[in-house]
C-alpha cells in the first residue's frame, strides 16, 4: 500500500515536471540593435548575430531594435536578405525611427512593431536616378509581397510619383507616424518596450537577451559614415599639402597620417579594404613626393594620383560613395589651400608654408629694382625654393623663383631670366 502511494506521488511529480520542461524549450527572445548609419559594418554585425542566435536551442524569436536615418542601399539589401532567410521568427521594432534604407530592413521581418512617437518612410534613393529608383522600388515591392504587406504603401515611401487616395498625394514621399501606421494596419502592434511587443504578439518567453554591439562595429560605423569619410580624406590631403610646403616632417605630416589612418582603418574594420589596398595608397604618396622634388609634372605625378584614387575607390563600399567622397575632399582641400595662402603669412604656424622672409637692409637685401646685371650669375640657395625662395650671390640675398621645380637649400642655381623684379633661376646639375 505504501509502495503504491509512493509510485502515485512519483508519477504525479513527473507529470508536473513535464510541462515545465517543455516550456523551457524555445523561450529566449534575442534583441539585435540596428542603430546608426546602415553600412557594411552593420550588416556584418547583424549577420554574425543571427548566426549566434540560431545556435541557441531555446530561441523563441529575435527582435531587431531599429533606430536609423538610413544609409547604404547595398548594405540594407544584405541585411534584408539575412533577415528574410532567418529560420527564426523575426520582429522589427521601430524604436523611434526607420527612415530611408531602414524601411527595407523593417519590412523584412515577420512582424512589425512601433513605439509611440515613431516614424517610418522617406526612402527615396540617393542619387535618385531612374535606374536606382527602379531597382530600389522593385526590392521594396518584392519584400513587401513576400511578407504579406501592402506593397503600394511601401513603394510610395520611395517613389513620389505614386499617389494613394487619402494617404499620400503625388509629388510627396510617404512617411508614417506610429498612429498612422496603426490606422493603416502597417504595424502589427504598438508598444513602448520589448515586453509590450511580445505580449502584443502573444509570444511567450522566459528571458529577453540583448546582443551586444562590439566596439569594432561602432567604430567602423562612425569612421565609414558618409559624413566623416570625405572629411577624413580632406584633412588627409590638406595635411599632405602642408607637409609638402614645409621642410622636414611636422604637424602637416602627422595630421595627414592620422586622417588617412582613420580612413583606411575604418574601411578595414568594415571589411572594405585590405593590406594590399593600403600598400597601393602608400605607393601613390611616395610617387607624389618624388614628383614634388622633380621639375615639371611627369609619370611619377600621374602614377601617384592614379594610385591614390584607385586605393580610395577600392576601399569604399561603392563607386558612387568613393566619387562623392573624393569630390567633397577635393573641394575642401582647394578651399583650405586658398585660405592658407591668403591668411597663412599672418600666423606663425604657417611661416613655413608661404615664404615670410622680410627683405630688410640689415639682413643684406637690396631695394634696387634693376637686376639685369645678375643675368647669368650663379648663387647658392639659402631657403628652400618652393618654387619661391632666397639665394645668395656675393653676399647679397635675392628673392627668386624657379621654373616650377622645388630646389633644396645649399644647391647652386643660375639666373636664367630677369623680368623687372622677378628673377628666375634654374638648378645647375
From TrEMBL:
Gene3D superfamilies xref list: 2-enoyl-CoA Hydratase, Chain A, domain 1, Nucleic acid-binding proteins
A single GO BP: proteolysis
UniProtKB keywords: Hydrolase, Membrane, Protease, Transmembrane, Transmembrane helix
Residue ranges constituting the NfeD1b N-terminal domain according to the UniProt record: 28-209
Highest taxon, organism lineage: Bacteria
Pfam families documented for this protein: NfeD (PF01957), NfeD1b_N (PF25145), NfeD_membrane (PF24961)
Protein name from the UniProt record: Membrane-bound serine protease (ClpP class)
Source organism (scientific name): Alkaliphilus hydrothermalis
Amino acid at each position: 500500500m505504501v509502495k503504491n502511494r509512493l509510485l502515485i506521488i512519483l508519477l504525479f511529480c513527473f507529470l508536473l515536471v513535464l510541462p515545465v520542461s517543455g516550456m523551457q524549450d524555445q523561450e529566449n527572445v534575442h534583441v539585435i540593435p540596428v542603430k546608426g548609419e546602415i553600412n557594411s559594418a552593420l550588416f556584418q554585425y547583424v549577420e554574425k548575430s543571427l548566426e549566434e542566435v540560431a545556435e541557441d536551442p531555446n530561441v523563441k524569436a529575435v527582435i531587431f531594435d531599429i533606430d536609423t536615418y538610413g544609409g547604404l542601399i547595398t548594405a540594407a539589401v544584405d541585411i534584408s536578405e539575412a533577415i528574410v532567410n532567418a529560420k527564426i521568427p523575426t520582429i522589427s521594432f521601430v524604436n523611434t525611427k526607420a527612415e530611408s534604407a531602414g524601411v527595407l530592413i523593417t519590412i523584412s521581418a515577420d512582424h512589425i512593431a512601433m513605439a509611440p512617437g515613431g516614424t517610418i518612410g522617406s526612402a527615396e534613393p540617393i542619387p535618385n536616378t531612374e535606374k536606382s529608383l527602379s531597382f530600389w522600388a522593385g526590392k521594396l515591392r518584392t519584400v513587401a509581397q513576400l511578407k504579406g504587406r501592402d506593397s503600394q504603401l511601401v513603394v510610395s515611401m520611395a517613389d513620389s510619383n505614386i499617389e494613394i487616395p487619402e494617404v499620400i498625394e503625388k509629388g510627396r514621399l510617404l512617411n508614417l507616424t506610429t498612429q498612422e501606421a496603426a490606422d493603416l494596419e502597417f504595424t502589427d502592434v504598438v508598444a513602448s518596450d520589448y515586453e509590450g511587443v511580445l505580449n502584443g504578439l502573444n509570444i511567450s518567453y522566459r528571458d529577453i537577451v540583448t546582443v551586444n554591439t562590439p566596439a569594432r562595429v561602432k567604430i567602423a560605423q562612425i569612421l565609414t559614415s558618409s559624413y566623416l569619410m570625405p572629411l577624413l580624406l580632406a584633412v588627409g590631403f590638406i595635411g599632405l599639402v602642408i607637409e609638402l610646403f614645409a621642410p622636414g616632417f611636422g604637424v602637416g605630416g602627422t595630421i595627414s597620417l592620422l586622417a588617412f589612418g582613420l580612413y583606411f582603418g575604418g574601411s578595414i574594420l568594415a571589411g572594405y579594404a585590405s593590406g594590399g589596398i593600403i600598400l597601393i595608397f602608400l605607393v601613390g604618396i611616395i610617387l607624389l613626393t618624388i614628383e614634388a622634388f622633380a621639375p615639371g609634372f611627369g609619370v611619377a605625378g600621374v602614377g601617384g594620383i592614379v594610385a591614390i584614387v584607385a586605393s580610395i575607390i577600392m576601399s569604399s563600399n561603392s563607386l558612387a560613395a568613393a566619387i562623392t567622397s573624393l569630390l567633397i575632399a577635393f573641394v575642401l582641400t582647394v578651399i583650405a589651400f586658398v585660405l592658407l595662402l591668403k591668411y597663412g603669412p599672418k600666423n606663425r604656424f604657417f611661416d613655413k608654408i608661404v615664404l615670410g622672409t622680410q627683405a630688410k637692409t640689415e639682413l643684406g637685401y637690396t631695394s634696387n629694382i634693376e637686376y639685369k646685371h645678375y643675368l647669368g650669375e650663379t648663387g647658392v640657395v639659402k631657403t628652400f625654393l618652393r618654387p619661391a625662395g632666397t639665394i645668395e650671390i656675393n653676399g647679397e640675398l635675392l628673392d627668386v623663383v624657379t621654373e616650377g621645380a622645388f630646389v633644396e637649400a645649399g644647391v647652386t642655381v643660375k639666373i636664367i631670366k630677369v623680368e623687372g623684379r622677378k628673377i628666375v633661376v634654374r638648378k645647375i646639375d
